[in-house]
What does this fold into?
Amino acid sequence: METLGRKSEPLPSEKLRAVIRNLEEERSDTIEKMFYENDGPNILPKLLENQIYAYIELIKEVEKHTKEFKYPISVEFRDDDNNTYYCIHSPKENYYITLYPNPINEESPKAYIHNYTRNDDESEGYKLDIETEEFIAKSGLSCFEDFLKIIRPCEAYINSVLAKMS
It folds into this structure.
């Protein structure tokens, strides 16, 4: 589409979808390389860290548009020190993830997985037990499973906002 002799910028949703596709392709290509290269196990931690950083950046971009499109759910919060963080809920699997884009004195982004269980104790009433684990990128299947726990709700949130933008 041309406007006044210039190509128009694609909609933000198209750009964001392209970034998500690129991240998925990068993940797939890297996993494939891990099996065919001698340095395969050393590739995984950097990939996971880079992908989490990319998803945080995507969420930051999506959050800019939630107000514009009047999307009812925001995942951006500020703590008492005015630091921004993002908290996304995965109700099917009973956990929250918290992403810190700019950790103080840290180079890499921080991600936490908060597993929770609901206990209905007649004597104490309703109680929520929360177990928090910091995500640390390293080689191994359990680390990759934790990584998927982080990016799945990120993708679900991003896709829900993109659907509203369309």
Helices lie at 12-36, 40-68, 141-165.
